[in-house]
Amino acid sequence: MFRRREPVPFAFLAEAERFRSNVTPPPRERASLGEIAGRWLMGLTIVAGLAGSLIIGTPALEQDHLSTPTQQSQAADGR
User: Fold this and answer.
1) Rounded mean pLDDT of 4-25?
2) Does the predicted TM-score (pTM) go above 0.70?
3) What's the rounded Cα separation, in Å, for the pair 32 and 26?
4) Does the pLDDT value for residue 29 go beyond 70?
5) 34-64 pLDDT tens trace
């Protein structure tokens, strides 16, 4: 019926599982308009950078330019 507990050197450790705090943490401060605008601007900058690098880098990944014949010098023609 009653469980016997092992001896604990500190009394507060034995009482810890029964303790409930009635103190609530303070409410979070709301972000100001400048902070919200800064977050949006940072997000848009990151997205624009990723989109720009994709747009600029896509032509370099295409394989069409590899199949075109290369221009030969006049020395290769024997002139």
Assistant:
1) 65
2) no
3) 18
4) yes
5) 999 999 999 999 999 999 999 998 888 887 6
The CA-CA-CA angle for residues 12, 14, 16, to 5°, reads: 65
Say how many CA atoms lie within 13 Å of 22 toward its Cβ.
0
* DSSP states along the chain: -PPPPPP-SSHHHHHGGG----PPPPPPPPPPHHHHHHHHHHHHHHHHHHHHHHHHHHHHH-SHHHHSPPPPPHHHHT-
Dihedral of alpha carbons 17, 19, 22, 28, sign:
negative
